[in-house]
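G., before I forget:
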Amino acid sequence: MHGWAGRVLDVNLTTGEIKKLPLDMGLAKMFLGGRGLNAITLYRELKANTDPLSPANVLLFGVGPLNGTLSPGSGRYNVTSKSPLTGGFGDANCGGYWGAELKFAGYDQIIIRGKADSPVYLWIDDDDVEIRDASHLWGKATDETDRLIKEELGDPRIHINYIGPAGERLVKVANVMSDLYRAAGRTGMGCVMGSKNLKAIAVRGTRGVKVAHPDALQEHVYESYQTLYSDWFARLFSQQGSACLVEIYNENLGALTFRNNQETFKEPRKMGNISGKAFAEKYLLKHRGCFSCPLHCASFFRFVDPRFGDTYWGKAEFATLTNFSTRVGVDSADFSLYMCMLADKWGIDIISLGGIIAFALECYEKGIISQRDTGGLELTWGNEAAIEKLAEDIAFRKSELGNLLAEGVRRASQQIGRGADRYALHTKGLEHLEVDPRGLQAWGLGFAVSTRGADHLRALPVFEYTITPEKAKAYFGTEKAADRFSVEGKGKMVKWFEELRAFADSLEICKYITRTGLLEPEPALKILNSVTGLSLQEEDAFRIGERIVNVERSFNAREGFTRKDDTLPQRFLEEPVPTGPAKGQVNKLEEMLDQYYETRGWDNNGVPEPGKLKELGLDFIARDMEKI
Amino acid sequence: MAAYKVLFLNPELCTGCRTCEMVCSLDKEGECNPAKSRIKVLTLLKDGIDIPAFCQHCEYAPCLDVCPINAVKRNRETGAVEINSEVCIGCRACMLVCPYGALRLDLNRRVMVKCDLCGGDPKCARFCITKALTYERQDVLETKKQYNSYSRFIDPLVKARKAREEVKYVD
């Protein structure tokens, strides 16, 4: 077999039974792998209304046919489960080396079932798979866990993913970390892992990946490097990492979060060290890359600040720079970078954590919570000491407020009441990231309809502000689609992007690689066909993407999600942007929703029509949807 | 011998992406497998250090001297130190003496394998996007190395000259 490893590892933590099953190649051709294969597996494995934190929930780790090959950006893997944060479809995607290593060990997917009696970790050494005691690792930070397992297994070159103290304490926004710095961040996958008493999965693989056409693969990958670097954005990205997005979202688009999205723009000269340029000049020590990646945007940084001492860490992203600075009213890049390092060690999603803290600060500002509720913490914008203390309280469920906020902004705002929900910026229970969708209509639609809740990566419709009107007309039927303030053509645009993103996520190649130069499926298809020996065409890629989105959407529909869940926080729909390049804008979501559902072949409640599902070869899901 | 080319490393430019391992195993074995690559990136995640380990094709190669059955030979055209797998008995003597740990036992064929510079077009250097690995003339490499080493003197000289020009303007 070429590309795929051809095996699925099925581990039942309740019984200790470990099975190696053949990969269903019919499914693999319909869903490729990674996100897609995980989605259909989750749909089949779970019944509606399964408690996400019960042993009945399954936790899936998936890689695709390109992982562990020369293909650019092919080090990623997908973690999928029913989300304890949203109650719907949950998944998170992660870079580093772990995904490739799993493939080298000879598996396309791991299915974790049940719950271990006491803390354990899984050790996958090619064909030898073992459930080992992890009681000595329980409570350890992620970096410490990495070191201890490598010492214990005696090989510095194995790759491990793990949860931190947040996942162990079932913090709803806990993540799964791997290779020290990489996070499967969103939708609380670390919380599910913690609920199964599973601390880590260590992998060593020597089986390799068979390639159908080695010479063609070399040729197409080499071509793809040239295409990638023909684009200015990729060159900027390779120099500054995703930190370069600070300037783009703030200066160009007026879409950066300030103080829980009260504002979306700040004069560049007042940004201090919070910018891609400043980061590259003052913090960046060395460019590092994930597995087989020519873009190397993982920035190893270092700084010395009297407050935090000598700080160095291997990942600084746009999210790292902004979540604990602009979002919470802090002016210091040092503080944000330091906090994100702590969050990584605790195993908690920085985007959700930033969102939760911004929510708490605004509630404090508006008098909804007071020092009585905060245990004496003065939660004013920019109060670094209080923010750090609150973050720790959330990650370790320490104080009463920390324990409440560890449930995410949706549940916390419901508990607090008194109009707090107005400041809880989430969709389907998942906290928004630090990009404001008021001046980016398609982004707003993408956030609202995303199958895992407020998420930018499901659609990432960058064409909204990067293409010419002529190209917009050719692709989406209207020149207005190239206007980010216009709603015209945005339904089509979001669908087109969602399909492409699902396709790339299922190959498990990186979004940043496929952000611009390699966006359209042709280069990826050439590489995929060289690896697997298949001859897939462009329409196949779109069809596979569409199928995946429909499965995920059907999963949510089965859980009772409807049109009312495809929404945005009131702030984005009603409060016009006060200043900056997006001044006066709100997101006109309702106007785009019908357009989008119709393009998708879904009913006006956002549920896939049985006819559409049958057309995609999903007859058994069509039968389920008929019952809704 | 002025045109003598060597495969050389600048570890500060290595991103740890391991593309070299992928293209090496793909080119030599037709599959992507770090366990079959002739080059292997050593990564210290905590310190952000990445160093590809590979054969330096030493001018006085201990592996060549130590091989009990003369399976190791130097390729006169490329300068590469190569192992004849038809003859190799897998005794690991070369592995024992190699200062770089650049030799591996092929677990299927049970013979030692190593870098052969791809016959004068090393794929690892070709695919190394940051040019951490380069295949260049030895004398040019020396020159570049010298420029780098002397940059600590060159940069202040350039700055000092600019400063002098600025002083002139004040006059």
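Helices of chain B lie at 19-29, 62-66, 93-97, 123-127, 138-170. The interface with chain A takes residues 12, 15-19, 22-23, 25-27, 29-36, 43, 45-46, 48, 50, 123, 126-127, 129-130 of chain B (CB under 8 Å).

More on Monday.
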